Amino acid sequence: MSPILLASSLLGTHLMCHRVCVLESKAVRKSDFYRFLVGLRVDSIALLRDVPFPSMVPWFPSRALNHTPDCPSKPFGGSSDFRVDRKRASMPPTIAFPATPVTPLLLLLRLVSSFAMHANPQHDDPSEVLRLARLCVREANQKAARMQNQTTHQLVQRVKDLKYWSQEIERELQELKADNEELQRYYRRLAKCAQTTVAAGECNETCVGAQRKRIHVVESLNSRVDASLEKEKSAIGEAAKQIHDFKAIVERQLEVNTVAKNHLLRDFTLKQEAITVDHKSAAMGVDEKYRLETPEGRHLDVREGVPLQRMSELDEWIENTARNLNATAKARANSRKIVQKVVHSTREVAQMMRTEANTVEAALKDSLKTWQDWRDGLRAKLGAKEKEKKTADTAIGEIQMALRQRREPLEIALKRQSQRGLRPGIELCNDRAQHALQAELVNLKATVVTLEGQLEKARESRRKLEEDRGRLERKMHICEHNFAVDYEVLRRIRATYPQEIQSSGFLVVEKLNPK
């Protein structure tokens, strides 16, 4: 048999096999190949040796192959929690593949080239050569089947690992969704708290505007109410600022959660696609459609069909998944911290605002009580002044009556004196009648003057009483006006103060489905 025909026969036989992989040098005994190459001529061997052969990367020993863990839920051989000491976790299984695949043609040419120098030209038995060739092909096929089973096992384990990490990502997405919904719920709660705080500020401004209507008389009362309102205004402004700052923090955290969610969704989608591809790759080993195909020359390049981008290392893949999961876990932890801080701070803000509101209401109640007491006192004084005024009026009336009674005798006495002054000549003398008339006139005049003095005093007293009564009435008007203002502020304006602000916190109910 010529070398060309022998090579063609061997190649035709070997190309009909299903799976061919690398054949270790110890798989076939050298003595068998010596007998196989005995009948080959030196020129044929040289012809085959001149064929260029690609370089081959030797296999790692079988003990270097990693095996997947017993538990598929722990692909790293460690804890199932990816957040616990990820750097110390063991690496998932991997197999080192040769850089250049070994095809049936390359295998036979390599074997012929390796043992051609030891050929014995004295033996040229075609049946022996055919037997050895068939033995070589059978052992190569068996080795290829074993290697293919190992590859299928690794693909199945890889699918399990991908499913495990997909479940982890899905669980993390669900937890992130729950935490994000909680954060959004408190964001809506903060919006309600902000509206309540604005309403409290409007109530305070209305109270301050109403307080300007008061007539300032007692500075201590006015200053106390004004000071409490001013302090409440400062507290409301501080509360509004804190709520606005918390809203900004929550908005930024919601953006971070959205970014983490998008990264996880992309990673989850890629892993689902990888599961589909690897599952299909593993199924190729048992699919008859692929098992019956015969390799052709144009399909022998292992790089054909592989993505053009750089293939990432397993460490990079692990680090990317861990980075996404850790970023999501960090976002969830920050969300929970923000929620706790919001709950604590809003409770403190509500307590502060409610305390200031209670202080304002207490100051208004004290002011109302003071105005009421003062008004009652003024009413009592006005009653006393009215009695004194009536007494003065009575005295004035009596004095006027007495004056009228005394003026009639005085008029008579004056007329008598005028009449006696008409006596002629010597008859106009100071007789006893004249002396009596003169004494009567003096007495009557003194009585009238005294009564007129008493009347003047009584009138002056009544005038003073009238002035005092006027002052008391003005004070009474001031008391009633201020009492009405404070009562309006306390009962009407302060009634509009948001009742959601309590010492236990903001009693607001947020919408479950916001617009």
Automatic annotation (TrEMBL):
InterPro entries: Tektin-like, Tektins. Residues 1-17 form the signal peptide. Pfam families: Tektin. Residues 166-193, 441-482 form a coiled coil. Its main location: cytoplasm. GO terms for biological process: cilium assembly; cilium movement involved in cell motility. It comes from the Eukaryota. It is found in: Cytoplasm, Cytoskeleton, Cilium axoneme. Keywords: Cell projection, Cilium, Coiled coil, Cytoplasm, Flagellum, Signal. Belongs to the tektin family. This is Tektin. The lineage of its organism: Eukaryota, Metazoa, Ecdysozoa, Nematoda, Chromadorea.
